[in-house]
Design a protein that fits this description.
By secondary structure, the protein is an alpha/beta fold. Helix content is about 45%, strand content about 10%.
Length: about 600
């Protein structure tokens, strides 16, 4: 038998079975499985690993690779059952307990995962993989305090590990945030949404297609619009749920954050099958799906972009963008900036409607002074400290790296400043803010001292909208030196909470951030190569020195004219509610 002859291995395995040499047969099946796996044939590899285990139950060398293959193929139930069986045969294998924990964690059972990782650590107390996974499982299961205690112990043992220092700060702040009282902002007089009974014509049969129950930006816009559409007499609403873009998305892991009564209304919208009769279809999801040529229904596609379109943005991988505005179909986007990037990609400007985003004024409103003071106390923020805030995943286009760098620069002169960064780690399954902070700290160690890192609070957990409002309420300024944004809803929410904002001039926030309410950073229009050849990324690079100066002026208390700021805010809310935004959408649908 040669070393690379699978046919000979199969014959030898069969012969070993006949002769009762089960261990030899199992090893040969494992060898066949490894060969198939290396050749890119996972189904065949799985079959051979199963043969090894059928031949010799509990055959340890086959358990871990088969578990990983089943996991990669999406068979979580099979992987979980396999590891339960493997642990019955090998209860002292710590690595098997880690694999079992990883699988049940992926099955959305963090409590079971905690138990599995704890068993692994009981067997091998120094097992780093088990310890790091246990921290994640504890945090996900809601046991933030225990995760914090463990991380503090690890930092005490290894004080030079930057990621542990960052982790302690994040967990400590999230533990405080979990105890923050639910904020019930006071509505500002005169800005309550008017009751909706618009129109006397026949109601429009509207099918909305999108994501419900989660907190991705597309899903939030979709759900806010649903709530407003349900209030209208001129719309008969039904929906079709689009597949989530990522396998880990679901209402449990990335909840939308609505109050239970509101979420119940959203979830109760009747579901219709694909192609159901309607006057109009409104599709808001990703990747973008073009209307079918034979579909007689008028289709409005929500399409927003920060830097420009790519083939990867489209479901079929082709940029056949003419179909989106053919035959009465139209594209909806959120800002003039986004519209221009769509036009740059070849979309017909006359086929694009700008429909702004809105803000929920019942939640996002200026807190009362005592409410603000209590919120700051609960979060460990001193009365004299100046707090800067930024929300969102720390991707390059959002400029969070600039926020961190400017904060560290300013902190060399002022020790009374703090920075809160709310990440989207649950949505994107990546710790972008922590990674960005680690990278900057490694490149600029003189700026990012231990004291400065301790002054930065990272938040990675999901927050309800009332808790988000609480974060805005304790901030002295919202800082968003973005390079490219489709709209930038947190800036609008900050303004609704009477928080001064620092934004990039020339971008999407120009639509709703006049100089009276915002410090607009000078910026340069630039482009660079994108992920696809021939499709450059267009963005605005804000002036870094101007950013540091703007934050310094906020800290000094002379950044804005408070009278002009509040006067403009009194005029802004009625035009930027979800009621007004949804009316824009319906008006566009009713136009010929």
């Amino acid at each position: 038998m040669t070393d690379d002859d699978p046919t000979a291995w199969r014959r030898s395995a069969t012969q070993a079975l006949r002769e009762g040499r089960l261990a030899d047969a199992a090893r040969l099946y494992q060898r066949l499985a490894e060969h198939a796996q290396a050749a890119g044939r996972p189904a065949q590899a799985i079959a051979y690993y199963r043969s090894a285990l059928q031949t010799q139950p509990g055959f340890a060398p086959a358990c871990a690779p088969l578990c990983r293959l089943l996991y990669e193929q999406g068979d979580l139930a099979g992987a979980s059952a396999l590891m339960r069986s493997a642990i019955e045969f090998h209860p002292d294998r710590a690595d098997f307990h880690v694999l079992a924990g990883y699988v049940v964690f992926s099955q959305q059972d963090p409590a079971q995962a905690v138990q599995a990782f704890e068993r692994a650590l009981a067997l091998e107390p120094g097992m780093q993989t088990a310890r790091s996974n246990l921290l994640v499982a504890l945090e996900t299961s809601g046991d933030t305090l225990r995760a914090l205690d463990m991380t503090r112990e690890m930092l005490a043992a290894e004080p030079a590990r930057l990621e542990l220092r960052i982790g302690v700060g994040r967990l400590a702040f999230e533990w405080r945030l979990a105890g923050l009282a639910q904020v019930v902002p006071v509505r500002t007089d005169g800005v309550a949404d008017a009751g909706l009974d618009p129109g006397d014509g026949p109601p429009m049969k509207l099918v909305v297609e999108g994501w419900r129950g989660i907190n991705h930006s597309f899903a939030l816009i979709h759900q806010f619009q649903i709530l407003e559409l349900l209030r209208r007499r001129d719309v008969v609403l039904s929906c079709r749920d689009l597949p989530f873009a990522f396998g880990h998305w679901n209402p449990r892991t990335v909840p939308a954050g609505f109050e239970s009564a509101e979420q119940a209304k959203i979830d109760a919208v009747p579901v219709v099958p694909e192609g159901a009769a309607a006057d109009c279809v409104y599709r808001i999801g990703a990747p973008f799906t073009a209307p079918q040529l034979h579909d007689s229904r008028r289709t409005f596609t929500y399409m927003v972009t920060e830097c420009g379109l790519m083939q990867a943005n489209f479901a079929d991988g082709r940029m056949d963008i003419r179909r989106f505005t053919a035959g009465g179909n139209r594209v909806v986007t959120s800002s003039r900036w986004s519209k221009q990037r769509l036009v740059d990609a070849g979309l017909d400007a006359d086929g694009i409607d700008i429909v702004t985003c809105g803000v929920n004024r019942e939640v996002f409103a200026p807190p009362e002074p005592l409410q603000r003071a209590e919120g700051r106390r609960q979060l460990g923020l001193q009365e004299h400290e100046i707090v800067f805030l930024n929300l969102g995943a720390a991707f390059w286009n959002k400029g969070v790296d600039l926020v961190m760098l400017a904060f560290a620069t300013l902190r060399q002169r002022r020790r009374d400043i703090r920075l809160i960064l709310k990440d989207q780690r649950a949505v994107y399954a990546v710790t972008t803010a922590e990674n960005t902070l680690r990278g900057l700290s490694n490149r600029h160690p003189a700026l990012f001292t231990a004291d400065t890192i301790d002054a930065i609070a990272l938040v990675g957990s999901n927050l309800s909208q009332t808790r988000l409002a609480g974060l805005y309420g304790v901030a002295d300024a919202y800082v968003s030196p973005y390079r490219a944004e489709g709209f930038n809803l947190p800036v609008l929410e900050a303004l609704a909470c009477a928080v001064p904002v620092i934004v990039t001039d020339g971008g999407s926030t120009d639509d709703f951030c006049p100089p009276a309410v915002a410090t607009r950073l000078p910026s340069r229009m630039l482009s660079r190569d994108g992920d696809e050849p021939g499709r450059p990324v267009r963005y605005r690079e804000p002036d870094f020195d101007a950013l540091v100066e703007a934050m310094s002026r906020i800290a000094a208390g002379d950044a804005i004219d408070r009278g002009a700021f509040r006067q403009h805010l009194d005029r802004l809310p009625p035009t930027k509610t979800w009621t007004a935004a949804t009316s824009q959408l319906v008006d566009a649908m009713r136009r010929p």
